[in-house]
């Protein structure tokens, strides 16, 4: 396969210096060990904290949203590193969360302006708004079958019919101050993390609460299911990451290593590697053993969002420094 050449910003080791250069990017360049990641792109353009990142299912597009004054969403071409499109005034205030539907057709965004907006990912055209929350909408999740969009905020959890673009149900109301959401790989279970430090599991079939995990001592900032659906990983402002057995409710392990809030987590498609982020950079873990594999530096402020690409070849991070960094990173031995 012929090599591609394009301009990027390269991370020079871990010295804190960057250099603009034209580099030759090949498939082998992306197949790096978790212990030796490479910075492929530094993406700039946001005017505020980058609060949310979402990859398209084919790993070719990255969507980013944040605390820009105009509620801007930006789309990035990950083959070239160039900006693919910009949705200006996507919301009246900050974009809190983004998700792309599994079929790659719809981009959903939510905001502290109480609304959820749907966009055509291909042409960035507005499709419709979901209105029903009475406070900030902080998190979105979508079912694997493209049927249900779930939103969480300070007033609870709501379910929306994505194909028909209409409200379905209110899963939880006031008293559930939701900060983060995730749907299980089989689409049957929803996990939520709240401001009381409680993690809850909800059946999306019966729309009932099925289990609550109590262990964090501060706001739960992120929740994520492992690809096989057997474990739930949670992060908190209490500086810890916890791994829970979905079937037994057992706390399997607590990961400690961050020196401040853990703002975001992401699980690699290999099912073993976990990325976590906060003020002290990105940490890569083998969550099955508790081993800390690596710590990535590069941002100059708190990291607020991270996401692995579905093909497992990239890790994207967004920060209070208004930048997005995209790392080439794949499992050892590939």
From TrEMBL:
Keyword Repeat belongs to the record: yes
CDD domains linked: WD40
Pfam families for the chain: WD40
InterPro entries tied to this protein: WD40/YVTN_repeat-like_dom_sf, WD40_PAC1, WD40_repeat_CS, WD40_repeat_dom_sf, WD40_rpt, WD_LIS1/nudF_dynein_reg
Family matches, as SUPFAM superfamilies: WD40 repeat-like
WD repeat residues: 43-69, 88-129, 130-170, 171-212, 213-254, 255-295, 296-334
Keyword annotations from UniProtKB, A to Z: Repeat, WD repeat
UniProt-listed PANTHER family: WD REPEAT-CONTAINING PROTEIN POP1
Protein name per its UniProtKB record: WD40 repeat domain-containing protein
Species this chain originates from: Calothrix parietina FACHB-288
